[in-house]
Design brief:
heterodimer; A: alpha/beta; Rossmann fold; 8-stranded mixed β-sheet; two-stranded antiparallel ribbon; 6 helices; 10 strands; globular; B: mainly beta; Maltoporin, Chain A; 8 helices; disordered N terminus
Chain lengths: ~170, ~675
């Protein structure tokens, strides 16, 4: 292998690494960032509301990390973070994140949401098979996700082609 | 963190490690500014941190979650706990029990394991036994998770924590988030269960829940043998119907707000006795044993000094009632055992000195009433009545000191004093080496005690058993080496190598002069063992864990311990099926040969259990179909020295149906 190719490879590698370089993300800092991206690449059936309510159902695993998204601009609107300890508080939510500690209540949450256009997000193994639209999963210290397209269609949500391309698996 | 904060009082290091793991660093990194492609390339440091925190616990700790309980269809704690390495379950057609690391002598109350509900001990003030089978006062549907900390926990938890601590963390109002009703049916013994629960976290922060459950079982018609129960010591055998029935009920309520929580757990179980235990009349109808437990606590848990000091204060009350009817020569004899206790505990966890995690605690318990009686109605008055009371107090201290980047030492000590056991010291020493980010090695030593219970020490009816007021406490010393390793693909491995020595074990002997039984300090018991386990989670929701345990437990001279299988094998698989919401839980258990009190060897056996569960097929309804002992294997467990029988045939295949409804 020529010296030049090596140099080029090294350059490419360093360029690729730049945005990521050793920031020491914690798991839920990363998940908060991914959640933001999920929302950015999802479209709701009606005109985008000025405020998108992002609800964390059950014990909040993010802590302060999710508050960084409070009021954040997205498209023409902005995000509002809400914490919900009961399904009754989910009525006005556009996005519902169900943490691992509350995943046992997933059937109750899904029954409560019906077919409404709500983006459901979780980080529980097997979540997408249980009806979560976008389920984050950790493997080898990296985050991936599965998309349940059938469930998204069911809810009238649009997932961008980019999202579907980056998903480790798409449930049709 | 909302939710679990106020519940897990018993296991501070463990619970705090997990609680502390979530809101990690103070620096705010704007992850949302990065593109999704970049975020998916990030290697997380926080995930390892979580693992590291948990691996710093000074013991081999395991957690069984509600999801697993559901997936495997477990209905009692002993079913769930015996999926872990080094735990074997036993059943004598009266009580379910567990043995840990090879010790589970037939007929012993569960006195060498501390069992607690949200940190509140269930081990009562009379028999000192933790309940783990159907007599456990909390319905397993209300369990959020089961924490098991293997090995000696005496340095923090005191009395009973000799071979492990089982702490049940219950669900709360937020976890219920509405109403639940459940019904279940098991074909064997026509067992019916029902439960109704309700809970909610209200807008004002009040979290409330309550639950009532009941069980009825007709019981099985059994072929029973009673060697030596006939006239002149002849053998009796027969087919018994209606003597295996059971009725239970349970009540649980909890209310919490902010730092405060209050809860009550109460259960009552009556089990008819087909075994004629305590050498009662064989084949006689109407013999039973009944147990009732009520435990309650008021807890305050709050952080001070910028979260550097956590204060836990609690007061508790417990009440235990036992009664049994045993027929002797056709006369029903009523045996009773009752105890009441109350007390308080204060625990401070301080993390303000860099590198140190300091734990201070003090516990006080008064056993206000201990009563044992026996009454033969054909004689005047109560034949035997033994009353007692007592108190015990303990103080403890532990320092977890991270003295170098990869090294942590643990030094702990608990001093207990009781009017029964006198003064006892329970030290703990540990060294933890984070050899690599994914590899932890632990070297641990611990000593733990239990004082004789009032039954062993005081019970004296002049016809079967003599008291022994001078009975000593038991002591166990344990040395353990644990290696934990995590592979990136969701796999974790653990190896544990241990030795323990139990001194002054309290066992039932026969007095040479009177011919009556008496509890005495027995022989030393030595054990060595190894537990190898592996677990893997796949993103698809498939979960697999398995373990192999070898435990060699012997009296001096090498005589093998009773009811102590040398080999245990466990395999637990959860597999989501491709049809919507359907999951399979499969368990395989291998149990080595067990020795009985009479010296017989009961064959090794392997069991398979299968559970199929479906959620969301019908709105609000979860269904499950379980088959226990799928291949209908015949196997036996040893009997106790209070039984006619040297061993008991266990149940063959059984089918369970369960329906849960949310409203």
């Amino acid at each position: 292998m020529s010296r030049l190719r090596l140099l080029l490879l090294a350059l490419c590698a360093s360029l690729l690494a730049t945005p990521v370089a050793g920031q020491g993300f914690t798991e839920y800092q990363l998940k908060a960032g991914v959640l933001y991206n999920f929302i950015a690449f999802t479209t709701w059936p009606e005109a985008a509301p000025p405020v998108l309510n992002v609800c964390i159902y059950g014990p909040d695993p993010f802590g302060r990390e999710i508050d960084a998204l409070q009021g954040r601009k997205i498209g023409s609107g902005s995000l509002a973070i809400r914490r919900a300890s009961s399904v009754d508080a989910l009525a006005a939510c556009h996005v519902v994140f169900i943490g691992q500690a509350a995943i046992g209540n997933l059937p109750r949450v899904l029954e409560h949401l019906g077919n409404r256009p709500v983006l459901t997000v979780a980080d529980a193994p097997g979540g997408s098979a249980r009806g979560i639209v976008l389920n984050m999963e950790m493997a080898d210290g990296r985050l991936g996700f599965r998309a349940n397209l059938a469930e998204a269609r069911n809810r009238g949500l649009g997932l961008s082609s980019k999202l579907l391309r980056l998903a480790s698996e798409v449930v049709q | 963190m909302m939710g679990r904060k106020s519940s897990g009082a018993l296991l501070p290091a463990f619970v705090l490690a997990i609680a502390a793991a979530a809101p990690a660093s103070a620096q705010t990194v704007d992850a949302a500014a990065l593109s999704l492609e970049d975020l998916l390339e990030v290697t997380v440091t926080g995930a390892a941190k979580y693992a590291q925190k948990q691996s710093q616990v000074a013991a081999a700790a395991s957690v069984i979650t509600r999801d697993e309980i559901k997936a495997f269809g477990w209905r009692t704690l002993d079913e769930a706990l015996s999926s872990l390495p080094g735990i074997h379950a036993s059943y004598d057609r009266q009580y379910g029990s567990i043995g840990t690391r090879g010790i589970g002598l037939p007929g012993d109350y569960l006195t060498r394991v501390l069992v607690a509900v949200n940190g509140n001990r269930i081990n009562d003030a009379l028999y000192d036994g933790g309940s783990i089978g159907r007599d456990f006062p909390v319905d397993i549907d209300l369990v959020e998770r089961i924490e098991f900390i293997g090995g000696p926990g005496g340095a923090v938890y005191g009395q009973n924590a000799m071979f492990g601590v089982v702490n049940i963390i219950t669900r709360d109002g937020a976890s219920l988030d509405g109403g639940e009703a459940a019904v279940a049916w098991k074909n064997r013994g026509n067992q019916r269960e029902a439960r109704i629960s309700w809970g909610r976290r209200l807008e004002n922060g009040v979290d409330a829940m309550f639950s009532v459950s009941g069980l009825r079982a007709d019981g099985q018609t059994l072929n029973m043998a009673y060697p030596g129960a006939g006239p002149g010591g002849s053998d009796v055998a027969g087919r018994v119907a209606g003597q295996d029935s059971e009725r239970d009920r349970e009540f649980f309520a909890r209310v919490a707000r902010g730092a405060w929580s209050a809860e009550v757990a109460s259960g009552k179980r009556r089990k008819d006795d087909p075994t004629a235990s305590f050498f009662a009349d064989a084949l006689a109808d109407g013999q039973y044993q009944r147990d009732a437990y009520s435990v309650m606590q008021l807890q305050y848990r709050q952080s001070y000094l910028n979260d550097q000091l956590e204060v836990l204060a609690r007061v508790f009350y417990g009440r235990q009632r036992y009664d049994g009817i045993f027929h002797y020569s056709g006369v029903p004899n009523l045996a009773k055992g009752e105890s009441d206790w109350h007390g308080g505990e204060l625990r401070l966890l301080h993390t303000g000195i860099a590198g140190h995690k300091l734990l201070f605690g003090a516990e006080w318990q008064r056993n206000s009433r201990i009563m044992q009686s026996n009454d033969d109605p054909t004689t005047v008055g109560i034949d035997t009545l033994i009353r007692g009371d007592g108190r015990r107090q303990g103080v403890y201290f532990q320092d977890e000191w991270q003295f170098a980047d990869a090294w942590t030492s643990i030094i702990g000590m608990r001093a207990d004093h009781s009017d029964v056991g006198g003064s006892q010291l329970s030290p703990r020493l540990g060294l933890i080496w984070q050899a690599a980010p994914a590899t932890t090695l632990k070297m641990l030593y611990g000593r733990a005690h239990r004082e004789p219970n009032a039954y062993e020490r005081d019970y004296d009816d002049t016809v079967s058993q003599l008291a022994n007021p001078g009975l000593d406490s038991e002591t166990v010393d344990t040395y353990e080496l644990i290696a934990d390793h995590r592979l990136g693909n969701g796999t974790s491995l653990r190896a544990s190598l241990y030795r323990w020595r139990l001194k002054d074990i309290i066992t039932l002997n026969t007095d040479a002069v009177s011919g009556l039984t008496q509890y005495r300090s027995g022989e030393r018991i030595d054990a060595r063992g190894v537990e190898l386990s592996a677990a893997r989670h796949w993103p698809s929701g498939v979960r697999l864990r398995g373990s192999v345990s070898f435990q060699d437990v012997a009296y001096p001279g090498g005589r093998e311990l009773e009811n102590s299988p040398r080999w245990l094998g466990r395999l637990n698989l959860i597999y989501p099926l491709p049809w919507h919401g359907l999951r399979l839980g499969y368990e395989y258990r291998f149990e080595g040969r067990r020795r009985t009190l009479a010296g017989a060897n009961l064959d090794a056996y392997s069991l398979s259990h299968l559970n199929l569960s479906a959620e969301g097929w019908i709105r609000g309804v979860d269904l499950s179909l379980g088959v226990r002992n799928l291949f209908d294997r015949r196997y036996r467990h040893p009997g106790a020295d209070s039984n006619w029988q040297d061993s008991f045939t266990q149940d063959g295949r059984a089918v369970l149906l369960k329906m849960d409804y949310r409203f």
